[in-house]
Amino acid sequence: MSSDARGGARDVAIALAPCLRPQTHSTEHTGPEKLCLSSIGPYILLEAAEGTQTYRAVHRITEQEHSCKVFSMRKYHELIAPYTRLLPHDNICKISEVIMGEQNVYIFFECNYGDMHSYVRTCKRLQEDEAVRLFRQMASAVMHCHENGVVLRDLKLRKFVFTDAQRTKLVLQNLEDSCLLNGDDDSLTDKHGCPAYVGPEILNSRHSYSGKAADIWSLGVVLYTMLVGRYPFQDVEPAALFSKIRRGAFTIPETLSPRAKSLVCCMLRKSPVERLEAADILLHPWLHCSTNAFVSQHPNSRHSTDQVVPDFEKRDEGEC
């Protein structure tokens, strides 16, 4: 790789938000509230999720469990904007209650039963019939956001969480990194996202790029990882990872059905203008296949030991 290419990779690595760094817009605990986090309104706040400012919370009266995010008062309106822009949707998280403190704002959401990244790591990779049911919900959430002028920017497996113990229902959470559009122009200039999911146009261009098309690329990485059990572009060195993404070349196992391969390729196209839009993804034949269409898959593919989704807690370049 040339020195220019290595320098470009370093530039992008600096511009992209590090996956494992706590979000800078999260809570800023100051004053008396810093010592009183165990209780707010009718809720008891328990431990925070590892590496986040999201707390488990229990309602004193109903005894129902919730998750609670804490925002500084000065950032509240900006961060809550994506939630208020969107109309209710079955696959997008809903705010249960907002409590204003003296310096912080406490936002309560329904509890969840784990995220998709952890689930894929546990399963190694998903059978196609299950992947269809779950990915359809993911694509529906992204379509709803795009239709209402919300570009997600930092789309990844971990942002989808289960709302039932059976792990059949998904919602998209953590919309604080989203960008609200004014009109139909979805051009963005900032380079924001998790390296494993970032599109080649963000790495290649110093100019604007289509935010919606970048979301579709990330969604393609999501689907590939669900079906294959690893990222389509993966390397321990950021410069090598970005080089692979720029080239846009990846391999798809022969165990996948032709329709699954087709959908993955329609989203992971190097040229943004050639990618499917979110609404078109929901019309793809793979999402309307019967269970019988997947019987050609290797019966033990889910447990293949050569498929690994990185442990995000140990690898800076992995999932956030």
UniProtKB/TrEMBL annotation:
Matches recorded under Pfam families: Pkinase (PF00069)
Assigned keywords, A-Z: Protein kinase inhibitor
SUPFAM superfamilies, A to Z: Protein kinase-like (PK-like)
Domain Protein kinase, residue spans: 1-287
Domain of life: Eukaryota
Keyword Cell cycle in record: no
GO biological process: positive regulation of proteasomal ubiquitin-dependent protein catabolic process
Gene Ontology annotations for the cellular component aspect, listed alphabetically: nucleus
GO molecular function annotations of the record: ATP binding; mitogen-activated protein kinase kinase binding; protein kinase activity; protein kinase inhibitor activity
Bias-annotated ranges (Basic and acidic residues): 311-320
Stretches for region Disordered: 297-320
Family in the record: Belongs to the protein kinase superfamily. CAMK Ser/Thr protein kinase family. Tribbles subfamily.
Protein name: Protein kinase domain-containing protein
